[in-house]
Amino acid sequence: MRYRLGVDVGGTFTDILLIDSDSGTSYRAKTPSTPHDQSVGVLTGIEKACAAAATSLAEVGQVLHGTTVATNAILEGKGAKVGLVTTAGFRQVLQIARSFVPGGLAGWIIWPKPEPLAALEHTVEAIERIGADGEVITPLDEDDIRAKLRRLKADGVQAIAVSLINSYVDGRHEARIAAIAAEELPGVPISVSSRVLPELREYERTITTVANGYVQPQVARYIENLTGKLDRKLYILRSDGGLSSATAAADNPVSMLLSGPAGGVSGAVWAATQAGYTDLLTFDMGGTSTDVALVQNGVPRVGRETRVGDLTVRSASVDVRTVGAGGGSIAHVPALTRALRVGPQSAGADPGPAAYGRGGTEPTVTDANVVLGNLPTELAGGEISLDREAARAAVQTVADAMGLPSVEAAAAGIVDIVNENMFGALRLVSVQQGYDPREFALVAFGGAGPLHANALGRLTGAWPVIIPPSPGVLCAYGDATTSLRDEAARTYIRRFSELTDDELRGIFTELAETAASTVEAEGVARSDQTVTYQVDIRYHGQGFEITVPASLDDFDDPASEGQGAGLKALGAAFDAEHERLFSFLLSNEHELVSIRASVSGPRPHVAVTPLSEGSADASAAIRTTTTVHVDGAAAEATVYDRAKLLAGNVVTGPAIVTEMDSTTLVLPGHAATVHPSGSLLIRPVEGV
């Protein structure tokens, strides 16, 4: 079977990318998302993509899917009723939580503390105790826990989460409780912390396990439903950018809370590498939100926490920051302040912006771009026609509320504010992390990203601004071009003086074997696997850790005396990262906290067909001219058909480049050069 199918479900659109693995030819489809049942939009898009390729689903070997099912269950509060089993004396672990309150000064006064995902009345205590060294202090009282599980069954719980104190050291009591739960509550999914997150810190381990149970029934139903309709091998994108089998995803859905954004980062890395850039800021603007991330040396920064709404769980994910700024973000003027605000509320896919003509009346970012002349009359390959008069009427309400002289002034204000919101997110992943954005290229994608990319380049100073081919479906491209991955972890708290290189190397090898076996079971031979290692280190007495990479090569050099070469390399890497983040070092001894091994399969080969060579003259791709409003004045912009651009063509702003899934705006004083890989590289024009 020669085709691979990438699927990305967003809040507004569902994107499909069908790739011919032999020729590299891709076929795109973009269709409105169906929030009531995401599989409907997915299947509709697949049918369109297969029709464009003149093929059928029977020729598709694999379906690789980035999904927001788990994310939406958290954000909308529509997960399962979870019963939690804890160790006696720890029943309030979720209520105590961590003493963190978002917001500025006195934020605690107005912050409504979110309800725990497992209610206190659905939390029971197991009579048991295992010490931090793995020794059984109090044996498990099986009769007692069986009676309590029966009570949870009577309460109608839909999932069980088991998180006992110190179970990361020894999970035997958790395993036994899970077995009893399977007997007492047949068919109810069970999440066990020693499998979901075998790491220290009982709150983080418990909330992660409960979150897994909270989304598990909904995710399992969705995957089962989609797998049944597709009758194809289905892989789900993990939050860390790797793929897992549908079965593994259904068992551990907490690992896919940022599945969608991770696909976009993977696609951006692939596209930018083709253009010769490996240090990137990625900027994914869709209909509902914008996701940004930082990539260094072709590797996305991966954090150990995943945050969705008010929920933070301990799960590896691409370090993506999200703001409620998208094409559907609604602009409004509060009566009290009369200050224009944009988002985070969104018109979504239904009814959508006023310009969509589906009943929406509130002004959105898309409506503002229509008023400014930045968008063509149709989107998504003609599937959506834009109603310019409806857009003007919607934006006029903002002009009236603020007393602005024209609807164009209101539209420009909306665009400026949403750009500043996205600029703030880009600063979070760059400046706040100690990186200068001017040293990175900016990769813009998503349906709305290329429309705002040039403006974000001006704000950040990140050049060139790269617009990949098919930017509106790049997340689906990332899904279709990523690799299988699994991870094994262990908490192992030791001061460096208590460790040896041989001891640590043995743990690395053991964890790598565990992860490699899982990947091998999915058909990836050991010879095709790549293993990477990470460790969490802190200064002894410090309350937090920093994750640094580890290389097994460092552990091959014999130590002449004292600390081995491997431990010295880890200590040096930790010191360098600590100083970069905080600008100081301590004299305290280093302490190991956790160890991880990640095993990945090879990225699939997708042939790239370079564009035909052309000159700087791009006139053959001109479609028409139009009037746009830029920097407070009207200007005549040339409209280009991206499909007709050749390598080496230069598009000088003001200009609009149109294609099926997105629209690129090139501002005055800037020019876009067409790279042979198909990407547009936007830079300022010298002397302008």
Automatic annotation (TrEMBL):
MF term (GO), any: 5-oxoprolinase (ATP-hydrolyzing) activity
Chain ranges of the Acetophenone carboxylase-like C-terminal domain: 503-673
Residue stretches making up the Hydantoinase A/oxoprolinase domain: 205-486
Coiled-coil residue windows: none
Domain Hydantoinase/oxoprolinase N-terminal: 4-184
Pfam family, one: Hydantoinase_A
GO biological process: glutathione metabolic process
GO cellular component: cytosol
Name of the molecule in the record: 5-oxoprolinase
Protein species of origin: Virgisporangium aurantiacum
